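Lecture notes, part 5. Sequence design as translation. It can be helpful to think of inverse folding as translation between two languages: the language of shapes and the language of residues. The source text, in C-alpha cells, appears below.
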C-alpha cells in the first residue's frame, strides 16, 4: 500500500486539474514549474512526496496561460517528463502520469518509408522518466497501449458524450462516420443512441482531362435526418467541415459534432464558425483560450470520471 495521494498539475491544463482536485476532495500540492529566460524548464516541489502515491496531471497539447502566452506540445511534454523525474528523485512511492490528451498519438505506425513511430518514442520517454502507471483518455489508436511497458488505463469520454446527446432527445437522429477509419467508434456511438449509422466514403476519381478529384459518397440514409458526427478529435477541422458541408448538400437537417479532444489548430475555429453545424460538443481534456470559444461550442467535463479512476487506482480496486 502506498502513502497518501499527492496530486500535482503542470501548466498544460490547470483548470481541469483544479476540477479533478475538487471532485477528489484532495488539494493540489504546490510546486514551482516554470521556464527560465533560456526556455529551459525547471520544477521544484514545495513539499516532500517520499513514499506517497503521486499523480501528475498534464496533457501533451498546446496550452495558454492567463497572459495569453502559448506553450507548445513539446513544452508540455518536457514539463511532464521533468515533473515525473522530480517526483522520482524525491522517492515517491508510485508515480502515475495522468495525460488527458496524448500528443503524437497520430504517429502510431510506419505508414510510409523512412518515418518514425513517435507515439512509441513518447511512451518510452514517459517510462524512462520514472512513471509507474499511465492514465489517459481516448487514444487515437488502441495499439498505443502496447507501446508502454508500464500499466496503462485508457478511459473514454464515450458515455459522457453519448449521454449528453441522448438527453437532448434529438428526433430522427443518424450517427455519421466522417470516414471509413471512424466506422467502428461511430457504430458503437450509434448503438448507444439506438440510432442508424451512415458512413461518408472518399474515393479518388479519374477525370476526363487525366487529373484526379476526391469524390464523396454516403453509405446510408441521411436525407431529412439530424446527423451526429462522432470522432476522437478535431484538429484543423478540415475533414470535419468537409463532411458537414457534404451532409448538408445531401439533404441533412441539423448537424452536431461530438469529439473528445478539441485540439483546434488554426484555422479550425473560423472553419467551425462558418460551418453548417448546430452544436460542437467537446470535453475539457485540452484547455481552450477565451478567443477560441464560440457560441456553438459546448464543453463537458471529464473531471468526475478521472477523479473516480484516480481514487480507484489509489485504493487498488477495479477501474473497469
Amino acid at each position: 500500500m502506498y502513502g497518501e495521494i499527492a496530486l500535482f498539475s503542470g501548466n498544460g491544463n490547470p483548470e481541469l486539474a483544479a476540477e479533478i482536485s475538487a471532485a477528489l476532495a484532495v488539494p493540489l500540492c504546490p510546486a514551482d514549474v516554470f521556464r527560465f529566460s533560456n526556455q529551459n524548464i525547471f520544477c521544484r516541489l514545495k513539499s516532500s512526496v517520499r513514499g506517497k502515491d503521486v499523480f501528475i496531471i498534464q496533457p501533451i497539447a498546446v496550452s495558454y496561460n492567463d497572459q495569453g502566452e502559448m506553450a507548445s506540445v513539446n513544452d508540455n511534454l518536457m514539463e511532464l517528463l521533468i515533473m515525473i523525474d522530480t517526483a522520482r528523485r524525491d522517492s515517491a512511492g508510485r508515480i502515475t502520469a495522468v495525460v488527458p490528451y496524448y500528443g503524437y498519438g497520430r504517429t502510431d505506425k510506419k505508414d510510409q518509408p523512412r518515418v518514425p513511430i513517435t507515439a512509441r518514442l513518447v511512451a518510452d520517454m514517459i517510462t524512462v522518466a520514472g512513471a509507474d502507471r499511465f492514465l489517459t483518455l481516448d487514444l487515437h489508436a488502441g495499439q498505443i497501449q502496447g507501446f508502454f511497458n508500464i500499466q496503462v488505463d485508457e478511459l473514454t469520454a464515450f458515455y459522457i458524450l453519448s449521454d449528453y446527446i441522448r438527453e437532448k432527445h434529438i428526433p430522427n437522429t443518424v450517427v455519421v462516420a466522417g470516414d471509413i477509419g471512424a466506422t467502428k467508434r461511430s457504430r458503437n456511438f450509434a448503438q448507444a443512441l439506438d440510432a442508424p449509422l451512415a458512413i461518408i466514403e472518399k474515393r479518388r476519381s479519374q477525370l476526363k482531362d487525366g487529373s484526379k478529384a476526391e469524390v464523396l459518397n454516403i453509405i446510408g440514409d441521411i436525407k431529412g435526418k439530424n446527423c451526429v458526427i462522432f470522432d476522437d478529435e478535431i484538429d484543423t477541422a478540415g475533414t470535419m467541415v468537409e463532411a458537414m458541408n457534404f451532409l448538408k448538400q445531401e439533404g441533412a437537417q441539423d448537424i452536431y459534432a461530438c469529439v473528445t479532444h478539441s485540439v483546434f489548430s488554426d484555422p479550425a475555429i473560423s472553419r467551425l464558425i462558418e460551418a453548417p453545424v448546430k452544436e460542437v460538443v467537446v470535453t475539457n481534456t485540452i484547455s481552450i483560450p477565451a478567443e477560441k470559444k464560440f457560441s456553438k461550442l459546448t464543453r463537458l467535463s471529464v473531471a468526475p470520471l478521472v477523479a473516480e479512476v484516480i481514487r480507484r487506482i489509489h485504493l487498488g480496486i477495479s477501474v473497469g
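The translated text above is only one of many valid answers, since several sequences can fold into similar shapes. The first helix runs from residue 14 to 24.
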